[in-house]
């Protein structure tokens, strides 16, 4: 679509004159349009704030102002990528598309030493899928003879490879080369599928050049979802935004691939720790189309202990950052500029939260201890410059994410800053050779207190220093109340933001009530 046509379509949408043909497109118009308007209004607010910061800069402390303004700039770019990601979300009818052709489907269940009772539930559900022309396979990468017996019990296929290189992708590719179904449904070992999963989504493959259909993910979670493992912002907002730009990614489970598309890129990508993200980008770069069907047909397990949670998030971050550093979407000529921006956001998000967010944690500590500030302004000027940018952003963010993005979500992201920083260091060091990979545990583990403390020591250290800085500032600063108020506010914000991760690491039961 040309820029002129895009602007006309947007103006028609604002006036309610657009021809609404997609599912829920007209019903979501009010929230969508308001979110877009506030997102655009926030750009001049940002320009004013940045101009004010530069004008009021205290260059005597350039060594703090430069990291400050650089971090603000990084998050402004992050905001622009976020707007692009959520600008227009595409939704699909839960019943899917009526198939025009009978496709044969191979159901792959890759297994690597997961508990047998969990695998059994997955296999039973896969066998019960209401689709006649399907073949279920257990892909055993753990050499467990009990799985062979299970396959024989259920009269399904069993594939065990002689060597075990390239992790899950290698396991999938070994089975891929030894099967011949038109489509492939990938189910993780702990993911129990509903019986209507195939009948609801195979119809999409009647549309030419549809490479895969990813469904929404759903998990068994403890009360209040303390770790934020439901990832509602991603599954209910971000993926739908990506879908509108033909950039919805495979999540590796509950996804149906067209064999022809995988063959064109040489099978599942073995370049990263996990196959899904890089495989998706290579498929899009070849001109294939994808669909995110925003209805869940599977339910599985999510990490419930701090060690498993951190390991999973670290692996996801390493994959996204390796792609960002060493196989950038900007290099792929087959991707549109919107697709490139969608893929760029993955790695950029981890850099923003892992490298630049901690600068905001540290600056108030420095200011309260040294009685110095990187800006020369009074309290009223600061709030006049900062508040419009902040408030309009919150409104736009709330509207564009359909109310799903809240402070708890931010706390969950911010609490992982050290994990993301570690992942960035690892990704930079691992251009050609991958770090060790292990499958995330599907059962809850009980960690020692020392392990729990080690998982949150950076958060505890920053929080303690923030608290000491607040007390020190109150005791020693008596001639500059605006300076004291601003820095106490941001130091308190740091403590409150990091408190959730510290509490979850040490006393997770508190958050499950």
TrEMBL record:
One of its GO terms (cellular component) is membrane. One of its GO terms (molecular function) is glycosyltransferase activity. Keywords: Glycosyltransferase, Membrane, Transferase, Transmembrane, Transmembrane helix. The chain crosses the membrane at residues 33-55, 61-82, 348-370, 382-400, 454-475, 481-507. It is found in: Membrane. InterPro entries: Glycosyltr_2/OpgH_subfam (IPR050321), Nucleotide-diphossugar_trans (IPR029044). Its main location: membrane. It comes from the Bacteria. It is a multi-pass membrane protein. This is Glycosyltransferase. It comes from Oryzomonas japonica.
């Amino acid at each position: 679509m040309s820029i002129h046509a895009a602007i006309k379509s947007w103006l028609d949408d604002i006036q309610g004159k657009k021809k609404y043909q997609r599912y829920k497109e007209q019903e979501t118009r009010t929230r969508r349009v308001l979110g877009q308007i506030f997102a655009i209004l926030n750009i001049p607010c940002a320009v004013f704030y940045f101009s004010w910061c530069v004008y009021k800069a205290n260059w005597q402390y350039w060594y703090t102002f430069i990291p400050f303004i650089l971090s603000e700039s990084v998050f402004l770019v992050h905001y622009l990528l976020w707007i692009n990601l959520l600008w227009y979300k595409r939704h699909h009818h839960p019943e899917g598309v009526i198939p025009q052709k009978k496709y044969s489907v191979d159901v792959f269940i890759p297994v690597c030493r997961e508990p047998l009772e969990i695998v059994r539930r997955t296999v039973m559900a896969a066998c019960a899928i209401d689709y006649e022309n399907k073949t279920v396979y257990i892909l055993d990468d753990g050499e467990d003879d009990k799985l062979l017996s299970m396959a024989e019990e259920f009269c399904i296929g069993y594939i065990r490879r002689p060597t075990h290189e390239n992790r899950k992708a290698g396991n999938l590719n070994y089975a891929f080369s030894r099967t011949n179904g038109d489509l492939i449904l990938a189910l993780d070992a702990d993911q129990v599928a509903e019986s209507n999963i195939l009948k609801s989504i195979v119809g999409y493959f009647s549309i030419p050049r549809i490479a895969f259909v990813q469904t929404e993910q759903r998990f068994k979670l403890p009360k209040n979802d303390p770790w934020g493992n439901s990832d509602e912002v991603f599954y209910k907002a971000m993926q739908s935004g990506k879908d509108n730009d033909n950039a919805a990614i495979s999540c590796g489970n509950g996804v149906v691939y067209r064999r022809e598309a995988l063959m064109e890129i040489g099978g599942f990508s073995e370049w990263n720790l996990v196959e899904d993200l890089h495989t998706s980008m290579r498929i899009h770069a070849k001109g294939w189309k994808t669909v995110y069907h925003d209805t869940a047909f599977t339910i599985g397990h999510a990490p419930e202990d701090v060690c498993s949670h951190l390991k999973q998030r670290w692996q996801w971050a390493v994959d996204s950052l390796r792609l960002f550093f060493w196989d950038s979407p900007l290099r792929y000529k087959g991707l549109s500029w919107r697709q490139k921006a969608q893929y760029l956001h993955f790695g950029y998000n981890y850099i923003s939260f892992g490298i630049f967010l901690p600068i905001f944690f540290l600056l108030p500590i420095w200011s309260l201890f040294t009685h110095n500030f990187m800006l020369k302004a009074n309290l009223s000027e600061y709030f006049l410059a900062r508040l419009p940018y902040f408030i309009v952003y919150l409104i736009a963010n709330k509207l564009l994410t359909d109310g799903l993005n809240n402070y708890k979500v931010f706390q969950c992201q911010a609490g992982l800053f050290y994990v993301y920083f570690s992942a960035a260091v690892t990704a930079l060091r691992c251009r050609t050779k991958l770090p060790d990979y292990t499958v995330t545990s599907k059962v809850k583990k009980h960690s020692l207190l020392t392990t729990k403390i080690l998982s949150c020591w950076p958060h505890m250290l920053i929080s303690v220093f923030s608290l000491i800085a607040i007390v020190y500032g109150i005791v020693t600063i008596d001639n500059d109340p605006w300076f004291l108020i601003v820095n106490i506010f941001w130091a308190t914000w740091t403590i409150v933001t990091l408190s959730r991760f510290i509490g979850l690491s040490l006393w997770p039961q508190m958050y499950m009530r």
